[in-house]
Amino acid sequence: MIKRDQLIRFINETIGKEVLEFAHYRDEMANGVQILGGEDVDRVTLGVSLNEDFLKEAVNNGSNFCIFHHGFDVRTYKSRIPTYAQKRLKLIFQKNLTIMGLHFALDVHPEIGNNAVIIRDLGAQRRDPFFEDVGYTADFATAQDVHSLSRRCSELFEHDIFAVFSGPRQVKTIAVVSGAGKPYPEHIAEMEEKGVELFISGETTESVPNKMKESGINYFVCGHYATEVFGVQELGKRIKSHFKENLEVEFLDIPNPI
Question: Which residues participate in a divalent metal cation binding (predicted)?
Fold first, then answer.
């Protein structure tokens, strides 16, 4: 068992003041504690998105401290609290849960963020900030076959890859933006300026594949949820390494095909 505030301090130190300040400036979503629960913590549960199924399972597993990439979205329509939010709030307050969201911070972090970890796990070297500083460009030491990279991404993300093979067969420079990551014209222009040969993201829209095809850039769409499991998992590893047997740490997977 540890104290709640001790865990919060460690998480803030791990993310770092600079990243948290950047997230506060750039992001309207949560990047820190949203709701304070019990003062003693035996088990912390981490996941991609806050929802009722996640909260129920976390409580059943004995957790009272939950960390999310997508935390509690408190935005309402005309101050009306919708049914789904009421269900979630009821669980949170009945079970005295601490809720922490780290949205932007767990995308942009240069070591444990989604994009940095994806680049590392693909065997590339992180280079420059990209996509309004949300993602990164990266280079492979030697050029990689783009079809082989597609198979590796399918394994890494455990998700079907929607691939547009419209660039070079041998790829050295990539860009990665986890989550939605739908490129607008300014982002495609940035890819062209930075020599990006493959863009990896989570979601797309109807017009984007043809834009990428006509731009001559390979394009992998790998799933919003699937590309955002990495940051919270890496944070969980850091928490477990620090607190060891004093704290149980669990990543809870509530799969989402989107």
Answer: 69-70, 107, 224, 228
